[in-house]
Design brief:
The structure is a single chain. This protein is α/β, with parallel strands linked by helices and 246 residues long. It folds into 2 domains: 116 residues, 3-Layer(aba) Sandwich (Rossmann fold), CATH 3.40.50.2300; 103 residues, OB fold (Dihydrolipoamide Acetyltransferase, E2P) (Beta Barrel), CATH 2.40.50. The chain contains 7 helices and 15 strands. A 5-stranded parallel beta sheet has the order 2-1-3-4-5, with helices on both faces. A hairpin with a 5-residue loop joins strand 13 and strand 14. The N and C termini lie far apart (46 Å).
């Protein structure tokens, strides 16, 4: 299992800060510093604080995110979070690892974290990543192949894998699953559901622009309205509608 990313934040709006902390923790990260301005985060770093990456609001009182980022070692990944898309050019001029618009979505955050991990591992020896993961079996563990798994579901901080039957994993969030299989192309179709697209047998229309995903064993899962277009694109359907059954 991958080591959780240690993230330090600077965001001057308390509600936005609280939400971002929750999203990062849901993705399996460890939030090691929460600051309401850039100066406080700079003081934390200068006082010996260590993080794998920084998430910075662009506009903050006093020391703003762009100025802070330009003063740091370029090897420290920085992700900017802002409500203003017109800051994108400045952000990438400051060699940002990514640029997120508020409100941040889980799927977009996962992509940003994946970019952070790639930067951190750049130049490191390439290891062949295992396609197996442990599940609980009685008092012990067995290892399940990802290729046998249709989807993962999180409930009450327990991640369940579905591979013909429901299996209890050692993970506590879907972010940990995504971090363990960064190249597998797993897709969030609901906040609590993570799907392996190759396991899909078919689609049928759902309600309000959603689709129902058909899996082995007669299992059907509903994709959210936000996930439905991405799922269709992934399956090569593009903007085509799924015909309703007569």
């Amino acid at each position: 299992m991958l080591k959780p990313l240690r993230i330090a934040l600077a965001e001057d709006e308390p509600l936005n800060l609280k939400r971002l902390v929750r999203l990062l923790e849901d993705c399996g990260c460890q939030v090691v510093a929460q600051c309401l301005d850039g100066a406080s985060l700079r003081d934390w770093l200068e006082g010996g604080g260590h993080a794998d990456a920084l998430f910075l609001d662009v506009q903050m009182p006093g020391l703003d995110g762009l100025t802070l980022a330009r003063s740091l070692d370029a090897s420290l990944p920085v992700v900017f979070v802002t409500a203003h898309a017109d800051h994108a050019v400045e952000a990438f001029d400051a060699e940002a690892q990514d640029f997120l618009l508020k409100p941040v979505t889980t799927e977009r955050l996962v992509r940003a974290l994946d970019r952070v991990r790639r930067k951190l591992t750049l130049g490191a020896p390439i290891e062949k990543r295992s396609t197996r993961y442990p599940i609980q079996a009685g008092e012990g563990l067995i290892f399940m192949e990802l290729a046998r798994t249709s989807h993962f579901e999180v409930k009450d901080e327990i991640v369940w894998a579905f591979a013909g039957e429901r299996c209890k994993t050692l993970w506590r969030s879907l972010g940990e699953v995504e971090a363990h299989f960064p190249e597998a192309g797993l897709m969030r179709i609901q906040r609590h559901l993570l799907l392996r697209p190759e396991a899909i047998l078919g689609l049928r229309p759902g309600s309000n622009g959603r689709v129902m995903v058909r899996l082995n064993g007669g299992v059907e899962l509903e994709a959210s309205r936000g996930a439905t277009p991405r799922l269709k694109e992934r399956l090569g359907l593009g903007g085509r509608d799924v015909d309703r059954e007569s």
